[in-house]
Amino acid sequence: MASREKRDVYYRLAKDEGWRARSAYKLLQLDTQYGLFDGVTRVVDLCAAPGSWSQVLSRRLPEALIIAVDLAPMAALPNVIQLQGDITREETVDEIIRLCDGKKCELVLCDGAPDVTGVHDLDEFVQSILVSRSMDLAFKILAEHGTFISKVFRGECLETLLRRNALLYFREVSIFKPEASRSSSMESYLVCRDFYPDGLAPSDNRKALYTQCGDFRLLDSDRTYSLDIDLSSFMSLSTQSPSLSRIDTQDSSFPTSG
């Protein structure tokens, strides 16, 4: 594990508070900003593994029908139905509809992402395909006036996605970066609210809003915080390696000047 992850305040908080991953705080901050969970009775979490977002849903919506979809299996969660399937396959859509008894969902989430290569244009393109596929699925199961949330990578592909999909079917479209998302990361979240299944009339005046989480009292995942530890319980131990002064400088393998 990278030392940066060990220092990450949200990583430590997730361990302390029993979340499966630090990404749980991203969904919690999205809910704080937009009130995502208000009135939700049916919700689908796409690309759900390892399950931190489904875990948030389980705790915050104990009476709701929660369906977690992923190709990979994950550990069981209270009040969460797991569906192991491919979000691009029609049979997966049919199974979600069956589990919902033919009723539409008020909320569809997707925090999935491919393994990044470090090549920004390539990563953004591959992520945009995943967002498009998850949005295609959402169009089939989302209730009128419902909400769709997806992780996105900022770039040209995102602008195309907004113009061709999001802004044509949702009254309110925003791009939001939670505090739990590292400022050095190119990820943000596409927040689409007030879904119209038949589409909206095109308008040049409708644009996506770009929002930064504005409460600067929250923890910053890129900042190093001191730990509240009683140092009096620690003791100093002598080093196990010989100091430089004890090395035999007559050894032919020891470098000398000259």
Automatic annotation (TrEMBL):
Listed GO CC annotations: cytoplasm
Superkingdom, taxonomy of origin: Eukaryota
Keywords of this entry: Methyltransferase, S-adenosyl-L-methionine, Transferase
UniProt domain Ribosomal RNA methyltransferase FtsJ: residue ranges: 19-195
GO MF term set: tRNA methyltransferase activity
GO biological process: cytoplasmic translation; tRNA methylation
InterPro entries associated with the record: RNA_methyltr_RlmE, RNA_MeTrfase_FtsJ_dom, rRNA-MeTfrase_E, SAM-dependent_MTases_sf
Protein name: FtsJ-like protein
Organism expressing this protein natively: Giardia muris
Organism classification: Eukaryota, Metamonada, Diplomonadida, Hexamitidae, Giardiinae
